[in-house]
Amino acid sequence: MGGPCNNKECMNWSDDKPEKSVVYVSFGSMAQLGLEQMEEIACGLSDCKFNFLWVVRAEEEEKLPKEFANQKITGKGMVVAWCRQLDVLAHKSVGCFVTHCGFNSTLEAISLGVPVVGMPQWTDQIRTLSC
C-alpha cells in the first residue's frame, strides 16, 4: 500500500498535475483516525474530481479500505507513508490541504497561501483551526 516515498517520487508525481489540482491530506505524526473516518476520507478522495496525495502512516494503513490499495499510485491519487510536507505545500499543483491543524502544519500552509480544510483531533488543534 502506501509505503515509504522518497521526496523525489512525490514531487515527480505532482509535477504532472495541473496547478492547484491536488488535495494534500496529512494528519501529522500522532493523530489516529478511526476506521470509519479513514473509510469516509478514502471514499471522498476516490469520488472527488481532484487529484490527491495522502500521507498514511504505516501503523494506520490497515484502516484503509482494501479496494483503495489499487489507488496507491494512479493518475489520480497517491498514498504514501511519508513525504516532506513543506515541499509538497510549496508545489504549484497543491490547491488544498486537509490537516489535523497542528500548529506547524497550519503555519506552513498559511505562509504558502494554501487553503486549509481543518479536521482537528485533539489538544490545541481546535484553537489553531479557529484562528
TrEMBL record:
<keyword id="KW-0808">Transferase</keyword>
<dbReference type="InterPro" id="IPR002213">
    <property type="entry name" value="UDP_glucos_trans"/>
</dbReference>
<keyword id="KW-0328">Glycosyltransferase</keyword>
<dbReference type="GO" id="GO:0008194">
    <property type="term" value="F:UDP-glycosyltransferase activity"/>
</dbReference>
<dbReference type="InterPro" id="IPR035595">
    <property type="entry name" value="UDP_glycos_trans_CS"/>
</dbReference>
<dbReference type="Pfam" id="PF00201">
    <property type="entry name" value="UDPGT"/>
</dbReference>
<protein>
    <submittedName>
        <fullName>Putative UDP-glucuronosyl/UDP-glucosyltransferase</fullName>
    </submittedName>
</protein>
<comment type="similarity">
    <text>Belongs to the UDP-glycosyltransferase family.</text>
</comment>
<comment type="function">
    <text>May glycosylate diterpenes or flavonols in leaves.</text>
</comment>
